[in-house]
Amino acid sequence: PNRTTRMAPSVPKKKRKVNLPENEEVAARIFDKSRSIASQQPGGLPEHQARALSAAYSGVCTAKEPVRTAGDLARLKGVGGWVVDVMKDCFPGSSLDLSPPRSNTPGETG
Fold it and tell me: What would be the CATH architecture of the domain defined by 21-90?
């Protein structure tokens, strides 16, 4: 395989097309979050964080299922715990329960 060494982008450079309209908002939040984190750090994002956010962003853009919770985000290929931690406040009322909710009644399990 042809390997070229290149720097990871500090943030996703430009917006990508999002496969599912339902995921537009999540993709935009990851895009904006990566920019805001990068702007708060003197040298921009560390490479591993930039790569993690970039992978999460492209994962959401190419997802074939809606990403509605932090758990949905965690299931995407290339998305690790750090990204889920950083992004979990973007999902209203979500917990890290990785199973889809079966009921809207609090305290009830499906």
Answer: Orthogonal Bundle (1.10)
- Contact status, residue 61 vs residue 79, Cβ threshold 8 Å: no
pLDDT at 106: 53
So where are the chain's domains? 21-90
Q: Which two tokens stand for residue 23?
A: 């995921």
The fraction of the chain above a pLDDT of 70, given in percent, is: 72
9-16: Cβ within 8 A, 24+ apart: 9/50, 9/54, 10/38, 10/44, 10/45, 10/50, 11/35, 11/38, 11/44, 11/45, 11/50, 11/53, 11/54, 12/53, 12/54, 12/57, 12/58, 16/57, 16/58, 16/61
